[in-house]
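protien #1 (seq + structre)
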Amino acid sequence: MAINDLIKKTCKALGENNKPTYVVMAIATVKGICRPMFTMMDKTENPETKKYTALREGLTEVIAIPAYWACGELASKFAKSIKDQPLAKRAEKNLMFIGVCTAALFVIPALCSIAIKPIMDKMGLKAPKDKKNNNVVQTANMPAQPNTIFPPAARLNTYPSMKTFTSRPQAGLRVGGL
Protein backbone atom coordinates (compact mmCIF):
# COMPACT_ATOMS: atom_id res chain seq x y z
CA MET A 1 0.00 0.00 0.00
CA ALA A 2 2.98 2.32 0.30
CA ILE A 3 3.23 2.67 -3.50
CA ASN A 4 -0.48 3.53 -3.75
CA ASP A 5 -0.08 6.24 -1.11
CA LEU A 6 2.97 7.64 -2.88
CA ILE A 7 1.10 7.78 -6.19
CA LYS A 8 -1.91 9.46 -4.55
CA LYS A 9 0.28 12.05 -2.79
CA THR A 10 2.18 12.79 -6.00
CA CYS A 11 -0.99 13.19 -8.06
CA LYS A 12 -2.57 15.38 -5.38
CA ALA A 13 0.53 17.61 -5.17
CA LEU A 14 0.70 17.95 -8.93
CA GLY A 15 -3.00 18.79 -9.14
CA GLU A 16 -2.86 21.43 -6.42
CA ASN A 17 0.37 23.14 -7.47
CA ASN A 18 0.07 22.89 -11.22
CA LYS A 19 0.45 26.08 -13.23
CA PRO A 20 -0.43 26.49 -16.93
CA THR A 21 3.07 27.78 -17.58
CA TYR A 22 4.66 24.54 -16.40
CA VAL A 23 2.45 22.44 -18.65
CA VAL A 24 3.15 24.51 -21.75
CA MET A 25 6.88 24.63 -21.00
CA ALA A 26 6.92 20.83 -20.67
CA ILE A 27 5.13 20.47 -24.02
CA ALA A 28 7.57 22.91 -25.65
CA THR A 29 10.51 20.94 -24.25
CA VAL A 30 9.21 17.68 -25.68
CA LYS A 31 8.53 19.38 -29.02
CA GLY A 32 12.02 20.88 -28.99
CA ILE A 33 13.49 17.40 -28.64
CA CYS A 34 11.14 15.23 -30.69
CA ARG A 35 10.35 17.37 -33.73
CA PRO A 36 13.99 17.86 -34.79
CA MET A 37 14.63 14.17 -34.12
CA PHE A 38 11.72 13.09 -36.32
CA THR A 39 12.80 15.53 -39.01
CA MET A 40 16.30 14.06 -39.05
CA MET A 41 14.88 10.52 -39.31
CA ASP A 42 13.09 11.32 -42.59
CA LYS A 43 15.00 9.28 -45.16
CA THR A 44 13.31 10.79 -48.21
CA GLU A 45 14.40 14.39 -47.63
CA ASN A 46 17.61 16.11 -48.67
CA PRO A 47 20.21 16.09 -45.81
CA GLU A 48 20.73 19.87 -46.02
CA THR A 49 16.99 20.46 -45.84
CA LYS A 50 16.68 18.12 -42.87
CA LYS A 51 19.49 19.85 -41.00
CA TYR A 52 18.09 23.33 -41.65
CA THR A 53 14.53 22.35 -40.71
CA ALA A 54 15.53 20.46 -37.57
CA LEU A 55 17.68 23.32 -36.33
CA ARG A 56 14.94 25.84 -37.06
CA GLU A 57 12.37 23.77 -35.14
CA GLY A 58 14.75 23.39 -32.20
CA LEU A 59 15.51 27.12 -32.11
CA THR A 60 11.81 27.91 -32.18
CA GLU A 61 11.25 25.88 -29.02
CA VAL A 62 14.37 27.33 -27.37
CA ILE A 63 12.83 30.76 -27.91
CA ALA A 64 9.35 29.56 -26.89
CA ILE A 65 10.22 28.12 -23.46
CA PRO A 66 11.41 31.37 -21.82
CA ALA A 67 8.70 33.34 -23.64
CA TYR A 68 5.99 31.10 -22.18
CA TRP A 69 7.49 31.43 -18.72
CA ALA A 70 7.92 35.22 -18.88
CA CYS A 71 4.46 35.95 -20.30
CA GLY A 72 2.74 33.59 -17.88
CA GLU A 73 4.50 35.00 -14.83
CA LEU A 74 4.03 38.59 -15.97
CA ALA A 75 0.30 38.10 -16.50
CA SER A 76 -0.15 36.36 -13.14
CA LYS A 77 1.26 39.43 -11.34
CA PHE A 78 -1.97 41.29 -12.07
CA ALA A 79 -3.81 38.95 -9.66
CA LYS A 80 -1.83 40.32 -6.67
CA SER A 81 -4.22 43.25 -6.34
CA ILE A 82 -7.17 40.96 -5.48
CA LYS A 83 -7.68 40.80 -1.69
CA ASP A 84 -9.85 37.65 -1.51
CA GLN A 85 -7.28 34.81 -1.25
CA PRO A 86 -9.20 31.92 -2.95
CA LEU A 87 -10.34 34.23 -5.72
CA ALA A 88 -6.82 35.60 -6.15
CA LYS A 89 -5.38 32.09 -6.54
CA ARG A 90 -7.95 31.24 -9.22
CA ALA A 91 -7.43 34.60 -10.95
CA GLU A 92 -3.66 34.02 -10.92
CA LYS A 93 -4.03 30.70 -12.76
CA ASN A 94 -6.49 32.18 -15.27
CA LEU A 95 -4.29 35.20 -15.95
CA MET A 96 -1.28 32.91 -16.30
CA PHE A 97 -3.21 30.91 -18.90
CA ILE A 98 -4.07 34.11 -20.77
CA GLY A 99 -0.39 35.11 -20.66
CA VAL A 100 0.67 31.74 -22.09
CA CYS A 101 -1.91 32.08 -24.88
CA THR A 102 -0.66 35.58 -25.64
CA ALA A 103 2.88 34.23 -25.86
CA ALA A 104 1.80 31.51 -28.28
CA LEU A 105 -0.22 33.86 -30.49
CA PHE A 106 1.92 37.00 -30.59
CA VAL A 107 5.18 36.98 -28.64
CA ILE A 108 6.78 33.76 -29.89
CA PRO A 109 6.06 34.35 -33.60
CA ALA A 110 7.43 37.90 -33.26
CA LEU A 111 10.56 36.74 -31.46
CA CYS A 112 11.12 33.92 -33.94
CA SER A 113 10.78 36.23 -36.94
CA ILE A 114 13.30 38.60 -35.37
CA ALA A 115 15.83 36.10 -34.02
CA ILE A 116 15.91 32.90 -36.09
CA LYS A 117 17.18 34.28 -39.41
CA PRO A 118 20.19 36.11 -37.90
CA ILE A 119 21.05 33.05 -35.77
CA MET A 120 20.85 30.74 -38.78
CA ASP A 121 22.96 33.17 -40.85
CA LYS A 122 25.65 33.31 -38.14
CA MET A 123 25.71 29.51 -38.10
CA GLY A 124 26.20 29.56 -41.87
CA LEU A 125 22.91 27.83 -42.65
CA LYS A 126 20.71 29.18 -45.40
CA ALA A 127 17.34 27.83 -46.45
CA PRO A 128 18.08 25.16 -49.04
CA LYS A 129 16.62 25.80 -52.46
CA ASP A 130 14.28 23.15 -53.74
CA LYS A 131 16.06 21.44 -56.64
CA LYS A 132 12.92 20.24 -58.36
CA ASN A 133 10.59 23.10 -59.14
CA ASN A 134 7.12 21.75 -59.75
CA ASN A 135 5.60 25.22 -60.16
CA VAL A 136 7.20 25.91 -63.56
CA VAL A 137 4.51 26.12 -66.22
CA GLN A 138 5.45 24.35 -69.43
CA THR A 139 4.88 26.67 -72.37
CA ALA A 140 5.31 24.11 -75.17
CA ASN A 141 1.63 23.11 -75.22
CA MET A 142 0.24 26.60 -74.65
CA PRO A 143 -1.10 28.64 -77.57
CA ALA A 144 0.81 31.73 -78.68
CA GLN A 145 -2.23 34.01 -78.23
CA PRO A 146 -3.80 34.36 -74.79
CA ASN A 147 -6.86 32.24 -74.28
CA THR A 148 -9.82 34.61 -74.57
CA ILE A 149 -12.36 32.07 -73.31
CA PHE A 150 -11.04 32.24 -69.76
CA PRO A 151 -10.09 35.52 -68.08
CA PRO A 152 -6.49 35.74 -66.70
CA ALA A 153 -7.66 35.16 -63.11
CA ALA A 154 -9.14 31.80 -64.08
CA ARG A 155 -5.75 30.67 -65.45
CA LEU A 156 -3.88 31.33 -62.18
CA ASN A 157 -2.35 28.26 -60.54
CA THR A 158 -3.41 25.95 -63.33
CA TYR A 159 -1.17 23.43 -64.95
CA PRO A 160 -1.54 22.81 -68.72
CA SER A 161 -1.19 19.06 -68.35
CA MET A 162 -3.82 18.89 -65.60
CA LYS A 163 -7.48 19.81 -65.83
CA THR A 164 -7.71 20.79 -62.15
CA PHE A 165 -7.33 24.01 -60.25
CA THR A 166 -5.00 24.12 -57.25
CA SER A 167 -5.13 26.80 -54.62
CA ARG A 168 -1.69 26.16 -53.14
CA PRO A 169 1.80 25.45 -54.45
CA GLN A 170 2.63 21.81 -55.06
CA ALA A 171 6.24 22.06 -53.85
CA GLY A 172 7.97 22.97 -50.62
CA LEU A 173 9.59 21.59 -47.50
CA ARG A 174 8.28 18.39 -46.02
CA VAL A 175 8.57 18.65 -42.27
CA GLY A 176 8.84 15.69 -39.94
CA GLY A 177 7.61 12.93 -42.23
CA LEU A 178 4.10 12.97 -40.78
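ok now protien #2
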Amino acid sequence: MIAPLGPRPSATDVLGDHRVVPVVVLDDPRKADALGAALVEGGLPVAEATFRTPEAAAVLRRLAARHDLVVGAGTVLTARQVDEALDAGARFVVSPGLSAVVVRRCQEANVPVIPGISTPSEIMQALDLGLDTVKFFPAEANGGLPTIKALAAAFPQVRFMPTGGITVESAPAYLAHPSVAAVGGSWMVAADLLAAGRWDEVAARCAATSALSAPRREGAPA
Protein backbone atom coordinates (compact mmCIF):
# COMPACT_ATOMS: atom_id res chain seq x y z
CA MET A 1 0.00 0.00 0.00
CA ILE A 2 1.02 3.60 -0.64
CA ALA A 3 1.27 5.63 2.58
CA PRO A 4 -1.02 8.68 2.82
CA LEU A 5 0.74 11.95 2.12
CA GLY A 6 -0.87 15.31 2.87
CA PRO A 7 -4.54 16.19 2.51
CA ARG A 8 -6.70 13.64 0.73
CA PRO A 9 -7.43 14.77 -2.85
CA SER A 10 -11.03 14.73 -4.01
CA ALA A 11 -12.31 13.02 -7.12
CA THR A 12 -12.98 16.38 -8.75
CA ASP A 13 -9.42 17.48 -7.89
CA VAL A 14 -8.03 14.52 -9.81
CA LEU A 15 -10.46 14.68 -12.72
CA GLY A 16 -10.02 18.43 -13.05
CA ASP A 17 -11.94 19.65 -16.07
CA HIS A 18 -12.17 16.16 -17.62
CA ARG A 19 -15.93 15.84 -17.47
CA VAL A 20 -16.27 12.83 -19.78
CA VAL A 21 -14.42 9.72 -18.61
CA PRO A 22 -13.87 6.94 -21.18
CA VAL A 23 -14.63 3.57 -19.59
CA VAL A 24 -12.11 1.14 -21.07
CA VAL A 25 -12.40 -2.66 -21.25
CA LEU A 26 -9.19 -3.90 -22.85
CA ASP A 27 -7.83 -7.44 -22.65
CA ASP A 28 -4.53 -6.90 -24.50
CA PRO A 29 -1.90 -4.71 -22.78
CA ARG A 30 -0.03 -4.43 -26.09
CA LYS A 31 -2.84 -2.21 -27.36
CA ALA A 32 -2.68 0.15 -24.39
CA ASP A 33 -0.02 2.42 -25.90
CA ALA A 34 -2.02 2.96 -29.10
CA LEU A 35 -5.17 3.56 -27.06
CA GLY A 36 -3.45 6.12 -24.87
CA ALA A 37 -2.12 7.92 -27.94
CA ALA A 38 -5.61 8.01 -29.48
CA LEU A 39 -7.15 9.44 -26.31
CA VAL A 40 -4.55 12.19 -26.15
CA GLU A 41 -4.77 12.91 -29.88
CA GLY A 42 -8.54 13.23 -29.55
CA GLY A 43 -8.25 15.72 -26.71
CA LEU A 44 -9.72 13.40 -24.06
CA PRO A 45 -6.67 12.50 -21.92
CA VAL A 46 -8.45 10.53 -19.20
CA ALA A 47 -9.45 6.88 -18.81
CA GLU A 48 -11.07 4.48 -16.38
CA ALA A 49 -9.39 1.13 -17.03
CA THR A 50 -11.81 -1.49 -15.74
CA PHE A 51 -10.87 -4.62 -13.83
CA ARG A 52 -13.04 -6.82 -16.03
CA THR A 53 -10.27 -8.79 -17.72
CA PRO A 54 -7.31 -10.84 -16.43
CA GLU A 55 -4.90 -8.29 -17.94
CA ALA A 56 -6.58 -5.22 -16.42
CA ALA A 57 -3.69 -4.31 -14.10
CA ALA A 58 -1.19 -4.60 -16.95
CA VAL A 59 -3.37 -2.38 -19.18
CA LEU A 60 -3.69 0.18 -16.41
CA ARG A 61 0.07 0.15 -15.82
CA ARG A 62 0.80 0.83 -19.50
CA LEU A 63 -1.71 3.68 -19.64
CA ALA A 64 -0.55 5.18 -16.34
CA ALA A 65 3.04 5.22 -17.59
CA ARG A 66 1.98 8.04 -19.90
CA HIS A 67 2.26 11.31 -18.01
CA ASP A 68 -0.22 13.00 -20.34
CA LEU A 69 -3.15 10.82 -19.17
CA VAL A 70 -5.23 10.84 -15.99
CA VAL A 71 -5.84 7.13 -15.42
CA GLY A 72 -8.01 5.44 -12.82
CA ALA A 73 -9.18 1.91 -12.11
CA GLY A 74 -12.79 0.85 -12.64
CA THR A 75 -14.94 -2.11 -11.57
CA VAL A 76 -12.88 -2.41 -8.39
CA LEU A 77 -14.64 -4.87 -6.09
CA THR A 78 -12.14 -5.76 -3.35
CA ALA A 79 -9.42 -4.27 -1.19
CA ARG A 80 -6.91 -6.49 -2.99
CA GLN A 81 -7.91 -4.95 -6.32
CA VAL A 82 -7.43 -1.50 -4.79
CA ASP A 83 -3.85 -2.48 -3.95
CA GLU A 84 -3.29 -3.86 -7.46
CA ALA A 85 -4.71 -0.71 -9.03
CA LEU A 86 -2.55 1.61 -6.96
CA ASP A 87 0.56 -0.49 -7.62
CA ALA A 88 -0.21 -0.10 -11.34
CA GLY A 89 -0.45 3.68 -11.03
CA ALA A 90 -4.17 4.42 -10.71
CA ARG A 91 -4.92 7.99 -9.63
CA PHE A 92 -8.54 7.29 -8.73
CA VAL A 93 -10.72 4.24 -8.09
CA VAL A 94 -14.27 3.60 -9.29
CA SER A 95 -16.53 0.80 -8.06
CA PRO A 96 -19.93 -0.35 -9.39
CA GLY A 97 -21.31 -0.52 -5.85
CA LEU A 98 -20.72 0.80 -2.36
CA SER A 99 -18.26 -1.29 -0.34
CA ALA A 100 -17.05 0.16 2.95
CA VAL A 101 -13.97 -2.08 2.71
CA VAL A 102 -13.02 -0.72 -0.71
CA VAL A 103 -13.71 2.88 0.33
CA ARG A 104 -11.64 2.63 3.50
CA ARG A 105 -8.72 1.01 1.71
CA CYS A 106 -8.70 3.88 -0.78
CA GLN A 107 -8.92 6.41 2.03
CA GLU A 108 -5.99 4.75 3.80
CA ALA A 109 -4.00 5.09 0.59
CA ASN A 110 -5.08 8.73 0.07
CA VAL A 111 -6.64 8.04 -3.34
CA PRO A 112 -10.05 9.33 -4.44
CA VAL A 113 -12.74 6.68 -4.67
CA ILE A 114 -16.08 6.97 -6.48
CA PRO A 115 -18.41 4.15 -5.39
CA GLY A 116 -21.53 3.21 -7.29
CA ILE A 117 -24.95 4.03 -5.84
CA SER A 118 -28.53 3.92 -7.07
CA THR A 119 -30.61 4.68 -3.96
CA PRO A 120 -30.90 7.37 -1.27
CA SER A 121 -29.85 4.83 1.38
CA GLU A 122 -26.59 4.17 -0.45
CA ILE A 123 -25.93 7.90 -0.72
CA MET A 124 -26.40 8.22 3.04
CA GLN A 125 -23.92 5.38 3.56
CA ALA A 126 -21.44 7.17 1.29
CA LEU A 127 -21.87 10.37 3.30
CA ASP A 128 -21.26 8.42 6.51
CA LEU A 129 -17.96 7.27 4.96
CA GLY A 130 -16.95 10.88 4.34
CA LEU A 131 -17.61 10.91 0.58
CA ASP A 132 -19.33 13.60 -1.46
CA THR A 133 -18.89 12.23 -4.99
CA VAL A 134 -20.58 9.03 -6.14
CA LYS A 135 -21.13 7.08 -9.33
CA PHE A 136 -24.80 6.79 -10.31
CA PHE A 137 -24.90 3.33 -11.87
CA PRO A 138 -26.36 1.98 -14.06
CA ALA A 139 -27.61 5.44 -14.94
CA GLU A 140 -30.08 4.88 -17.74
CA ALA A 141 -31.49 1.69 -16.24
CA ASN A 142 -32.16 3.54 -12.98
CA GLY A 143 -34.15 6.41 -14.47
CA GLY A 144 -31.39 8.57 -15.87
CA LEU A 145 -31.34 12.31 -15.42
CA PRO A 146 -34.81 12.58 -13.77
CA THR A 147 -33.59 10.30 -10.98
CA ILE A 148 -30.42 12.34 -10.53
CA LYS A 149 -32.51 15.50 -10.27
CA ALA A 150 -34.62 13.89 -7.55
CA LEU A 151 -31.58 12.64 -5.64
CA ALA A 152 -29.80 15.98 -5.98
CA ALA A 153 -32.79 17.77 -4.47
CA ALA A 154 -32.48 15.64 -1.34
CA PHE A 155 -28.67 15.63 -1.29
CA PRO A 156 -27.46 19.01 -2.62
CA GLN A 157 -23.97 18.42 -1.20
CA VAL A 158 -23.40 15.35 -3.38
CA ARG A 159 -21.79 15.27 -6.83
CA PHE A 160 -22.67 12.52 -9.28
CA MET A 161 -20.77 10.69 -12.03
CA PRO A 162 -23.55 8.90 -13.95
CA THR A 163 -22.35 5.88 -15.93
CA GLY A 164 -24.15 3.14 -17.80
CA GLY A 165 -26.07 3.53 -21.04
CA ILE A 166 -25.01 7.14 -21.61
CA THR A 167 -24.30 8.16 -25.19
CA VAL A 168 -22.73 11.12 -26.95
CA GLU A 169 -26.28 12.34 -27.60
CA SER A 170 -27.50 12.08 -24.00
CA ALA A 171 -24.30 13.20 -22.24
CA PRO A 172 -24.83 16.98 -22.70
CA ALA A 173 -28.11 16.93 -20.76
CA TYR A 174 -26.43 15.14 -17.86
CA LEU A 175 -23.46 17.51 -17.88
CA ALA A 176 -25.73 20.55 -17.83
CA HIS A 177 -27.03 19.59 -14.39
CA PRO A 178 -25.01 21.36 -11.67
CA SER A 179 -24.78 18.24 -9.48
CA VAL A 180 -23.12 16.19 -12.22
CA ALA A 181 -19.34 16.32 -11.89
CA ALA A 182 -18.65 14.09 -14.89
CA VAL A 183 -20.13 11.24 -16.90
CA GLY A 184 -18.62 7.89 -17.73
CA GLY A 185 -19.11 6.34 -21.16
CA SER A 186 -17.71 3.85 -23.63
CA TRP A 187 -18.96 5.14 -26.97
CA MET A 188 -15.53 6.55 -27.83
CA VAL A 189 -13.73 3.34 -26.76
CA ALA A 190 -16.29 0.80 -27.95
CA ALA A 191 -15.21 -2.83 -27.76
CA ASP A 192 -15.34 -3.35 -31.52
CA LEU A 193 -13.05 -0.38 -32.13
CA LEU A 194 -10.48 -1.63 -29.63
CA ALA A 195 -10.61 -5.18 -30.95
CA ALA A 196 -10.03 -3.99 -34.52
CA GLY A 197 -7.36 -1.47 -33.55
CA ARG A 198 -9.29 1.42 -35.14
CA TRP A 199 -7.34 4.07 -33.28
CA ASP A 200 -8.17 6.75 -35.83
CA GLU A 201 -11.87 6.27 -35.09
CA VAL A 202 -11.20 6.30 -31.33
CA ALA A 203 -9.36 9.60 -31.73
CA ALA A 204 -12.15 11.02 -33.90
CA ARG A 205 -14.84 10.06 -31.38
CA CYS A 206 -12.75 11.52 -28.57
CA ALA A 207 -12.41 14.76 -30.52
CA ALA A 208 -16.18 14.91 -31.02
CA THR A 209 -16.64 14.24 -27.31
CA SER A 210 -14.00 16.60 -25.96
CA ALA A 211 -16.25 19.60 -26.56
CA LEU A 212 -18.49 18.18 -23.85
CA SER A 213 -15.59 18.39 -21.37
CA ALA A 214 -15.92 22.13 -20.83
CA PRO A 215 -15.14 23.42 -17.33
CA ARG A 216 -17.94 23.12 -14.79
CA ARG A 217 -20.53 25.82 -14.85
CA GLU A 218 -20.01 28.75 -12.54
CA GLY A 219 -22.05 28.30 -9.41
CA ALA A 220 -21.97 24.50 -9.49
CA PRO A 221 -21.24 22.91 -6.11
CA ALA A 222 -17.55 22.15 -5.48
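The first strand starts at residue 20 and ends at 24.
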